[in-house]
């Protein structure tokens, strides 16, 4: 009598053929039931493989420019993921194979799923999943639930200590200026800059607060100046499609941007970003001259748009913006200082 073979390798196509033949030869036998279980495990491994692939794709934006992520390393990483998916299905990590067997066999009375969805099941496998995946995610915001996040019903609980970020919405450009003026005023004085310049720049970057980048949970990143998350950034990131100008031609790219916890964090980090980068020192020296500051900021590479500075200056000089500023402060000079 032929023995059911284990499909313990992700490219074991022969094992699948043996399962198919065994099930056809003896549809009601013990071997057929075992074949059904093995086929269900293989289906589960395919599902897990798709899940891992999606996670890798979500992390792809943060791998660009990293020498550790070449085509060769990605090839072997994908092989590892596929084998990992097979091993996880063999261990019953998700329990999907058990559910498939239950549905197709019709034996609901004697069946009991050995999965994390069962109340008395162990959740230790989830720790192993996280430990296997985490080293390859390179600080991605993608995470895997840990046992502590599950209640006795197998549902993911919200972290009771984690507070949701406050809503940041603006009804109009006037509302945008009114809500952000104090932040701009208190932060701009650190470098001797007119706070109206910061508001005008943020208005251009975010469309008056209507297009602030959101994180993967759909919450605001509070990134009011669209500061990118380069290699020295250790905080959370959010990938966003953006237009970059290369040799005067607009090119659509996906770039990682910094994620903050509050409006104040965004303003503070913008100043810190300028102060900590040597290429912006010339612009900072001209902070008391709004137009010179913006022109030098653009020249230093803050934005690739060749009209970046002129667009912000246009906002500064518009009558509507001047009226907005006059509503929050008595006198603001928009003229470049000689």
TrEMBL record:
Cell wall biogenesis/degradation as UniProt keyword: yes
Family matches, as Gene3D superfamilies: 1.10.530.10, peptidoglycan hydrolase
Domain of life: Bacteria
A GO CC term attached to the entry: periplasmic space
Subcellular location: Periplasm
Alphabetical GO biological process terms: bacterial-type flagellum assembly; bacterial-type flagellum-dependent cell motility; cell wall organization
Keywords: Bacterial flagellum biogenesis, Cell projection, Cell wall biogenesis/degradation, Cilium, Flagellum, Glycosidase, Hydrolase, Periplasm
Extent of Polar residues compositional bias: 151-162
GO molecular function terms listed in the Swiss-Prot or TrEMBL record: amidase activity; hydrolase activity, acting on glycosyl bonds
Function: Flagellum-specific muramidase which hydrolyzes the peptidoglycan layer to assemble the rod structure in the periplasmic space.
NCBIfam families named among the record's database cross-references: flagell_FlgJ
Family: In the C-terminal section; belongs to the glycosyl hydrolase 73 family.
Protein name: Peptidoglycan hydrolase FlgJ
Name of the gene encoding the protein in the UniProt record: flgJ
């Amino acid at each position: 009598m032929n023995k059911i073979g284990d499909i313990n390798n992700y490219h074991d196509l022969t094992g699948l053929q043996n399962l198919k033949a065994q099930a056809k030869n003896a549809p009601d036998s013990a071997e057929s039931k075992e074949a059904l279980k093995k086929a269900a495990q293989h289906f589960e491994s395919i599902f897990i493989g798709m899940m891992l692939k999606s996670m890798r794709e979500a992390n792809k934006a943060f791998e660009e420019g990293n020498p550790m992520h070449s085509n060769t390393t990605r090839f072997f990483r994908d092989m590892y993921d596929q084998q990992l998916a097979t091993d996880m299905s063999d261990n019953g990590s998700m329990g999907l194979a058990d559910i498939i067997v239950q549905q197709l066999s019709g034996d609901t009375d004697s069946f009991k799923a050995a999965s994390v969805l069962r109340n008395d099941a162990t959740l230790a496998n989830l720790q192993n999943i996280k430990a296997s995946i985490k080293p390859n995610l390179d600080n991605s915001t993608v995470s895997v639930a840990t046992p502590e996040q599950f209640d006795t019903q197998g549902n993911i609980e919200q972290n009771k200590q984690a507070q949701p970020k406050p809503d940041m919405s603006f009804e109009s450009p006037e509302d945008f200026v009114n809500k952000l003026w104090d932040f701009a005023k208190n932060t701009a004085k650190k470098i001797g800059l007119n706070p109206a310049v910061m508001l005008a720049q943020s208005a251009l970057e975010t469309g008056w607060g209507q297009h602030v980048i959101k994180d993967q949970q759909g919450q605001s990143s509070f990134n009011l100046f669209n500061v990118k998350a380069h290699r020295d950034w250790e905080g959370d990131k959010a990938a966003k499609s953006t237009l970059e100008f290369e040799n005067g031609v607009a090119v659509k790219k996906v770039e990682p941007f910094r994620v903050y916890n509050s409006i104040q964090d965004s303003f503070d980090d913008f100043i810190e970003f300028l102060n900590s980068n040597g290429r912006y020192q010339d612009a900072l020296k001209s902070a008391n001259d709004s137009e010179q500051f913006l022109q030098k900021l653009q020249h230093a590479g803050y934005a690739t748009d060749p009209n970046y500075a002129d667009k912000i200056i246009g906002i500064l000089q518009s009558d509507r913006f001047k009226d907005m500023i006059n509503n929050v402060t008595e006198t603001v000079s928009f003229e470049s200082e000689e």
